[in-house]
Fold this protein.
Amino acid sequence: MYTLYCEICDNYYTAKSEKVKYCSALCNFKSVKKVKNKDTECIEWAGNKNYKGYGRFKYNNVFYTAHRFICEIYHGPPGDKHALHSCDNPSCVNPDHLRWGTNMDNVIDKMSKNRHVSFKEENNGNCKLKKSQAYDIKYKETGTYTSIAKKYNISSTQVSHIKRNMSWKNL
């Protein structure tokens, strides 16, 4: 065991290795550079980030996401809740912008702010039709569902769904 000095909180601590730079996850969190955005009041994590833009750090071989870590310090244990950003900035660690909420709270928040991804119609990677083609099928095409399906290289069931407003409802 080594007795080491933490430059963040000015305390001594014991560790199994000299490589441990900080006495706690909190001091490790505090050591990472953060930048305050004057326009949004966001405190943006300038350290390592995951692929979604959330800050992360490692202490004692445990990875932490920065926003959840600081939310727990300021707002208590999460239970089974999500850390929600009022600012919609994944790298923000301003505790005033964070709160615990359910998955449904998160879904309602992103839907109300139009941040959700829709996989309907053309946004669906499996979609074979363009919106204009679906429109033509729905309102212009005549003939049997089978003949229409062959023309557009889709199933007759899909033609039926379009014609009966079961898919492409927004046309």
About this structure: The chain is about 30% helix and 20% strand.
